Amino acid sequence: ASADNGPSCPGSLIVVSNRQPYRHEYEDEPDPAQMSDPADRDGDPPAGTDGGTQTGTQRSITVDEPTGGLTAGLDPVVQATDGTWIAWGDGDADFAVTDDRNCVAVPPDEEAYTLRRLDLSEEAVDSYYYGFSNRVLWPLCHGFPDLIEDRTDDFEWYRTVNEQFADAVSEHADDDSVIWLQDYHFALAPRMIRESVPDSATVAHFWHIPWPTPETFQHCPAGGHILEGLLGNDLLGFHIDRYVDQFLQCVNRFLPSATVDFAHRTVRYDGRTTRVVATPMGVDAESYDRDARSTDPDRLSALFEEYGIPENTKIGLGLDRLDYSKGIPERLAALERFFERNPDWRGEFTFIQKATPSRTEIETYERYGEQVRNEVQRINRRFETADWQPIVYTEDVLPHEDICALYRHADVMVVSPLIDGMNLVAQEYVAASVDGDSALLLSDRTGAHERLGSHALTIDPTDTDGVAAQLEHALSLSAYERQWRMNTLRQRVFDGDIESWMETQFDWIRRIHDGSRTTESQ
Ligand code: GDG
């Protein structure tokens, strides 16, 4: 099945993700649980309220369109295969429900596929999502073992929720199914699924965050279970080679009965083979390019007025979830150093930091947010003048058009994570830099650096002097060098966009899927 000649999946597709691709909101029944964590995984900020409004029942229902790159990219593929998408989300039994399992037909007007929503209890969400997923696996995989909070029962809830998802998958799967799980919320489910679906079905998984070294992974509570769970997959994907290698090293070290073939990147365990691949994820480059080109100058002026940015200053931009992996305080320190060293740029350069609060239920995140806000305030007090602030800080969730306008207008973008699985923002910025007249400072600790490093301006995010110097360099590059660098970056981002990423995934899945069917018929 193919979506408008786009990527095609070799079987009927069942996607499993934590977030749902469409969210139904009921006017008289707001859903705080789903709204509390705006720009979480896969970059899904709360969608605008401009989705379709349905009045299938007495109540008015707003349907949010898919927003993040992955959801927006996968949606047409699932539509084309008449597939199923299984995600966390409550739902209302009386709206467009196709059966008693909390399934709805989406998109609202076309009803092309089934969205199955798993309604998780508050306790389950607290333990599976805010607990084991985000207090253990997230810090572990990002190399912050000191931040792991191993709370009683979190792992048991993680297992229970993984079981719920696995049970849901097996209810929808047949012998031609391709089951594609997304991310670290589902490390145990692959094995459970593998044991309950037909042998000829294919189980694949993409892990969107880094995979740590064995030295870090040894701090993982229930680490053996996590590895065993993931080896239930036929295919396991990471963004870059380093994460693949580190995963294989962890299996080799912590699961002695597994046989790791480092050269072919396969693991033989419990009678089955898992192939591990590096497939770096891209963005919908065309849509960022198109929307940046149609930027409304009045809208941008209004935004600048709202933020008190004087006309004609050069603009720097940072855009991240408020997450300790993103290196925001380090970036602020480099900005302070930059203004210290370059008094001429005071009043001439404004840095816009757009930070989206995330996982605020977790104290570490709450504290991180406070630290960032305090630092911004301190630096602003130090350098501000009557009509200029060095850093304009906002936690507003901006519509896609505004993001594209800012990307296009910014002279320099600073992407400085301490570690990041990929980082889509860097690629979006490049895709939206349609004038080719800007520069990207990119941390060498991001997956994105593997594909863009040589033409971005590389930074070590912890080197305050180095980042300040690169910023100075970026602002003084010749027009020729800016154009040349940006045009090369644009080529890479367009060549490796979200569609080509999905094609690569499905090519791998096809090989495995066809292989298992051939073996079965022999
Ligand atoms: C994880 C991994 C990996 C942010 N604020 C707004 C907004 N955003 C969008 C950006 C971008 C997304 O959020 C953030 O994506 P990132 O990739 O930068 O970061 P994570 O959220 O940490 O994503 C990461 C990714 O998964 C995919 O595998 O690259 O390494 O950590 O798309 O544009 N969008 C809008 N308004 C906002 O205010 N519209």
TrEMBL record:
Disordered: annotated segments: 1-71
Q: Its Gene Ontology biological processes?
A: trehalose biosynthetic process
Q: Name one GO molecular function term.
A: alpha,alpha-trehalose-phosphate synthase (UDP-forming) activity
Tell me which InterPro entries the record gives: Glyco_trans_20 (IPR001830)
Name of one Pfam family that matches = Glyco_transf_20
> SUPFAM superfamilies from the xrefs?
UDP-Glycosyltransferase/glycogen phosphorylase
The name this protein carries in UniProt is Trehalose-6-phosphate synthase
